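> forwarded from #structure-qc
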């Protein structure tokens, strides 16, 4: 059986949503819109950036010229518009619909090394105890130990999402390891460290 790529799955969802007339794609019951441009710091427009009303399913993608329009908004109600593009930090702007000319500038992740950065030791420094990780972690550890995150490395439900299997170990989709077979992921690294 051939696996569906994540992009094909997402595009399929949007096609179904458009056919069903879901408000976040069709302009919704409220007709207010917000439009603008997503760009990099150097002014270059960023096409295919994800643009959404923060923490909602109201999502669109910027055009090749960086332009976007989000519909289905309530006039006079302030919202936060967020934007993201591969390799860039998330940017945002708080606006009150209807609004035009909204600009969101995205900044590249800094991948350069900073030789002046001072690393703090994980062990308490007798001269400055606040500089060790234990300063914060010692009181937080008992609370973390009782959390679901602490048990993720032995939680069968966590592994169903991580490996892409059901609780019996049979393959199903989606799953982190199915989509990203060459990586362990941040949560995977934390889970193995918590055993």
């Amino acid at each position: 059986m051939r696996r569906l790529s994540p992009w094909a799955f997402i595009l399929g969802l949007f096609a179904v949503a458009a056919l069903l007339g879901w408000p976040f794609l069709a302009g919704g019951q409220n007709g207010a819109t917000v439009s603008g441009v997503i760009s990099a710091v150097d002014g270059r427009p960023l096409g295919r950036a994800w643009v959404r009303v923060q923490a909602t399913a109201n999502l669109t993608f910027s055009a090749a010229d960086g332009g976007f329009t989000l519909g289905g908004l309530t006039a006079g109600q302030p919202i936060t518009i967020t934007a993201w593009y591969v390799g860039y930090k998330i940017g945002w702007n708080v606006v009150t619909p209807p609004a035009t000319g909204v600009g969101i500038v995205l900044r590249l992740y800094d991948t350069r090394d900073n030789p002046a950065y001072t690393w703090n030791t994980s062990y308490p420094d007798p001269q400055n105890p606040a500089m060790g990780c234990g300063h914060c972690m010692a009181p937080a550890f008992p609370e973390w130990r009782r959390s679901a995150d602490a048990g993720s490395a032995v939680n069968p439900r966590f592994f169903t999402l991580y490996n892409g299997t059901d609780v019996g170990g049979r393959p199903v989709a989606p799953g982190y390891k199915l989509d990203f077979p060459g990586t362990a992921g941040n949560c995977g690294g934390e889970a193995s460290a918590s055993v």
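QC bot note: The longest strand covers residues 32-40. The CA atoms of residues 83 and 91 lie 5 Å apart.
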